Amino acid sequence: MSSGGVVIDNSVSVGWFHADQLTAYAQDVLHQLGRRSFRVPSHWLLEHANSLLLLERRKKMTRQQRVRAMEKQSNLRLVVEQAPEDVTEVMRHADDFQ
After folding, report:
1. C-alpha to C-alpha distance for 30 and 38, rounded to whole angstroms
2. What are residue 32's phi and psi, to 5 degrees?
3. Helix 63-73, helix 44-57: angle, nearest 10
4. Which residues pair with residue 80 across a beta bridge?
């Protein structure tokens, strides 16, 4: 696992692309993107794409909006964490934060 930066997940980033999902915290993170290092888990891209697709299917965004959001997402300066090969390391970190 890499160190440094703040780890965010899709619950934060989806609001950057759909106003109904935007929280004050997500907006604060978005404003800090150029000044701080933000990391996302290895599954973030799939989860993010799925969230946008669900918003489209629920008629909360158009296909064009979804495509534009995916294009914008590819320009974000996020560090994607690689999935660990050994789950033992993850469990050690989990034990540290009980």
Report:
1. 10
2. -95, -5
3. 160
4. 40
3-class secondary-structure state, position 26: helix
Cα 80 to Cα 2, 13, 65, 74, distances in angstroms: 10, 13, 24, 12
What are the phi and psi torsion angles at 96 (to 5°)? -65, -25
Q: What is the pLDDT of residues 59-79, one digit of tens each?
A: 999 999 999 999 988 888 888
Q: State how far the Cα of 89 lies from the Cα of 93, in Å rounded to an integer.
A: 6
CA 25 to chain centre: 13
The β-bridge relationship of strands 38-40 and 6-7 is: parallel
pTM for this model (two decimals): 0.74
DSSP 15: G
Q: Which residues pair with 79 in a beta bridge?
A: 39
